[in-house]
Amino acid sequence: MSGRAAPARRVAAEVLAAVRDDDAYANLLLPARIAQARLGPADAALATELTYGTLRMLGRYDRIIRLAANRETSAIDPAVLDVLRLGIHQLLATRIPPHAAVGDTVALAPRRATGFVNGVLRTVSRTSAEEWDARLTAGLTGHARLAAEHAHPEWVVDALGAALDADGRGGELAELVAADNVAPAVALVALPGLASVDELGEPGAYAPTAARAPGGDPAAVPAVRDGRGRVQDEGSQLAALVLSRARPVATGERWLDMCAGPGGKAALLAAEAAVGGATLTANELVPARAGLVRKALTVLDPAPAVVEGDAARFGATHPGGFDRILLDAPCTGLGALRRRPEARWRKRPDDVAALVALQTRLLDAAVEALAPGGLLAYVTCSPHPAETREVVAAALARHPGLAALDTRAVGQDVATADLGDGIGPALQLWPHRHGTDAMFIQLLTRP
Ligand SMILES: C[S@@+](CC[C@H](N)C(=O)[O-])C[C@H]1O[C@@H](n2cnc3c(N)ncnc32)[C@H](O)[C@@H]1O
Fold first, then answer.
1. Do residues 381 and 332 lie in contact, with contact meaning Cβ atoms separated by under 8 Å?
2. 171 in a domain, yes or no?
3. pLDDT (tens digit, 9 = 90+) per residue, 349-399?
4. β-strands 210-212, 202-203: how paired?
5. Which of 285, 313, 384 for mutating ligand 1's site (highest number of atoms within 8 Å of CB)?
6. Phi-psi map region of 320: left, alpha, beta (phi>0 left; psi -120 to 50 alpha)
7. pLDDT tens-digit profile of 7-52?
8. Are residues 425 and 292 in the same domain?
9. Residue 303 lies in a domain
10. Which end of the chain is more exposed for a tag (fewer CB within 10 A), N or C?
């Protein structure tokens, strides 16, 4: 076990270091490192479990380290701290035998710290995961307790609680934060006109374009390999389809995806536009991400235009110029914590105000660029009330005549199964209810 697992641990340790030092995204970096290290399927699965599990539980493991090492984590060399976190994850959350978890993890530590790492991990191993839980949550109640139990910063638990309240689901907070710690099932999208759901696998749960990935590497599915199918969360699929299917498409409609990178929703919208006789323009601020959008759209013939720059310009350059607009706004991503294991620890509560200002600026521009009677979808992969319902409410107050459409009803018409209750007119999806990211979707129109 220990010999076989060593390369997987090394890859996990490298990704943890890059996340810490270079602000890398584990979900993007890990597959590249797995390929570079030529890990077989079993080692790749172990490297993924170690990396994702350790990053998700970081706050919890740091509290355990503080108790077991009897010192603040800020007083521990960051590289040594990563090794300790990785070891604790193996001891408390996997079935790796303790001697292998400790021995192989110590081997990753800088030579000067091997004694320290060995001592701390042995201390941790003498107490069960359940007992550690009891110690970490002793005396805590409410959100503080949920934060400790499910390894979320408390401000995130507060924000998710407020978002659930706003959707009439106040009692579901424990289920939501637990769902954030479970790896999502891989969903595929069959791009309309290019692939069928049957080609990809069993139908998905809600989106008519969705299939459940058959196990293993999704790229092994021929339609995914040639770009006619893609990996895409069902909530993201519904967000695009709510815009494209809210009403029939008239030939010649002009569509705009303002914030398109890396291109998931743009690919689905482009396929929908091609089927309906509309034309899509995809815009992205960051050139490298615009490149990803171009790549995602090459499967379409002709490929839609991809342009680069601040989407706020469209209000002035194309007033009333688009019949349908997707504003999939930059956000905290608090609805996609399952996929971005480090995100909960990286985001700060004071990030929210700057994002709300950006979302507001982009939404104002979207309203200006929308043709009279057109459809605008404001979408975030965060359910945070400040980024969702409050941004929309403020826009409705600023723009006379701007109206919120019953997006729950549209979503229900589009979906293949009952989406359940919620407080409209927005459609809010939830990981614990729908198995999707917590996408917020609000359709707007103007006179
Ligand atoms: C939530 S992501 C979009 C995801 C995308 N719609 C998809 O489904 O693949 C938001 C994107 O907005 C881009 N962005 C940030 N500020 C922007 C701006 N001022 N104008 C245009 N795009 C911007 C980010 O680089 C990021 O790629």
1. no
2. no
3. 999 999 999 999 999 999 999 999 999 999 999 999 999 999 999 999 999
4. antiparallel
5. 285
6. left
7. 999 999 999 999 999 999 998 899 999 999 999 989 999 999 999 9
8. yes
9. yes
10. C
Residue 357, ligand 1, Cβ within 6 A: no
Same domain, 399 and 272: yes
Please tell me the distance between residue 409's alpha carbon and the centre of ligand 1 in angstroms. 27
* Structural domain count of the chain: 2
Residue of 413, 409, 435, 431 whose CA lies nearest to 422: 409
Helices vs. strands in the chain: H and E counts, helices first: 22, 12
Catalytic residue IDs = 381
CA 137 to centroid of ligand 1, rounded, Å: 38
- Whether residue 57 lies inside any domain: the answer is yes
| Domain end (from 131, 153, 178) | 131
Cα(406) to ligand 1 centroid in Å equals 25
- Residue 257 belongs to some domain of the structure: yes
User: Does the beta carbon of 265 lie inside 6 Å of ligand 1?
Assistant: yes
Looking at residue 69, which CATH number applies to its domain? Answer: 1.10.940.10
* Residue-wise pLDDT tens digits, 391-403: 999 999 999 999 9
pTM of the model: 0.95
CA distance 404 to 264: 25
Instruction: Provide the strand spans (E) within 331-439.
Output: 370-380, 403-404, 427-428
Q: Which atom of ligand 1 lies closest to the CA of 333?
A: 1
Write the residue with the smallest CA distance to atom 18 of ligand 1.
310
Q: What is the pLDDT of residues 156-169, one digit of tens each?
A: 999 999 999 999 99
Structural domain for 114, as ranges? 2-131
Average pLDDT over all residues of the chain: 96
Decide the pairing of beta strands 279-284 and 305-308: parallel
Q: Is 310 touching ligand 1 by the criterion CB < 6 Å?
A: yes
Q: Do 232 and 349 reside in the same domain of the chain?
A: yes
**Atom 19 in ligand 1: which residue has the minimum CA distance?**
310
